[in-house]
Design goal:
5 helices, mainly alpha, 71% helix, 127 residues, elongated, 0% strand
Length: 127
């Protein structure tokens, strides 16, 4: 994934212009390629974190995750189903926490992408 983002940046005209002006490879990497590659990577990473949380919780829920006795959201939901009618909060709280964390990772990633994207202007600067 990262190679695909960098390869697209490497072939841009501003990189070729910097090479023609005699800029070093490290300067081009730090000044041109890296800033243009970070913006698409941040959402990929944060979506990966959300997927990881869902995968780990799902595997623990079906019994393939961490050892019994280790606190984990999927295991908490699984154990809460045994007493769900009398204590629904034992299922609803860990479920809500998973939803909040995955949504939070996604929103943080989108916000960071918008903030760090060099193609957009600085949204916090006065117009």
């Amino acid at each position: 994934m990262y190679e695909r983002c960098c390869a697209a940046s490497r072939e841009n005209q501003f990189v070729e212009s910097a090479r023609a002006l005699g800029a070093s490879e490290s300067y081009i990497m730090g000044r041109h390629i890296l800033p243009n590659s970070i913006a698409p990577l941040i959402p990929m990473i944060t979506l990966g974190l959300g997927s990881l949380l869902l995968s780990v919780s799902g595997l623990s829920f079906i019994g393939l995750g961490v050892e019994a006795g280790t606190p984990e959201l999927g295991m908490m939901i699984k154990n809460g189903f045994a007493v769900f009618p009398g204590h629904p909060h034992l299922v609803l709280v860990p479920s809500a926490l998973i939803i909040v964390c995955v949504t939070g990772f996604t929103l943080i990633g989108d916000g960071l992408r918008d903030r760090l994207d060099p193609r957009k202007g600085n949204p916090s600067s006065p117009s």
